[in-house]
Design brief:
Layout (H helix, E strand, L loop, with lengths): L4 H16 L5 E3 L4 H8 L4 E3 L2 H8 L6 H4 L3 E4 L10 H17 L5 E4 L7 H8 L30 H17 L1
């Protein structure tokens, strides 16, 4: 599951080529539940946005294909605090619940940028401490610079006005 359709399309193109060569069927969910359900039963790998997976997984007790999931990967887990965050949170919690109820456990993997609360996120998805990997921002392919500038202005509107120029200059540089 990826938070945005553009990421799903990108993964679909890449994975169809890679896994198709191995004889695996990759499916990209479109949002048409009737056709998605028929295709879901034949797919080995399913790519979806949170909204599309939410729609299909709500009635998981009637859908054998949802119960048959063995591995559930959540990409961009750090966006849990963003616009798609509530849906992502519901789906991950639902998949963990399905795992506890279904005969076969579901392995949940969360992929994210470096997180300050990686241990909390790992516990939430059910990862044990020896299965949690949080890499320092310095090992990224594109180095990440962290810069903090404080503003001691108590009035909110005045503080926002004071932050505009430094923020713009930092982004520009």
């Amino acid at each position: 599951m990826a938070p945005f359709q553009s990421i799903v399309v990108e993964r679909f193109e890449d994975w169809s080529e890679k896994f198709g060569a191995l004889g695996l069927k990759v499916l990209q969910l479109t949002g048409e539940s009737a056709s998605d359900l028929k295709l879901l039963e034949k797919a080995d790998i399913v790519l979806a946005t949170p909204d599309k997976w939410d729609m299909l997984s709500r009635r998981w007790k009637q859908r054998k294909a949802i119960q048959a999931v063995n591995l559930f990967i959540v990409d961009e887990l750090h966006l849990i605090g963003g616009e798609v965050g509530p849906t992502m949170e519901i789906i991950v919690s639902r998949m963990r619940y399905i795992s506890s109820q279904a005969p076969n456990p579901i392995r949940v993997i969360g992929l994210s940028s470096s997180l300050a609360n990686a241990r909390d996120a790992g516990e939430w998805i059910g990862a044990s401490t020896n299965c949690l990997f949080n890499f320092h921002p310095g090992v990224r392919p594109v180095p990440l610079e962290i810069y903090i500038q404080g503003f001691d202005i108590t009035n909110f509107d005045t503080r926002m006005q004071a932050m505009i120029r430094p923020t713009y200059m930092a982004i520009k540089s």
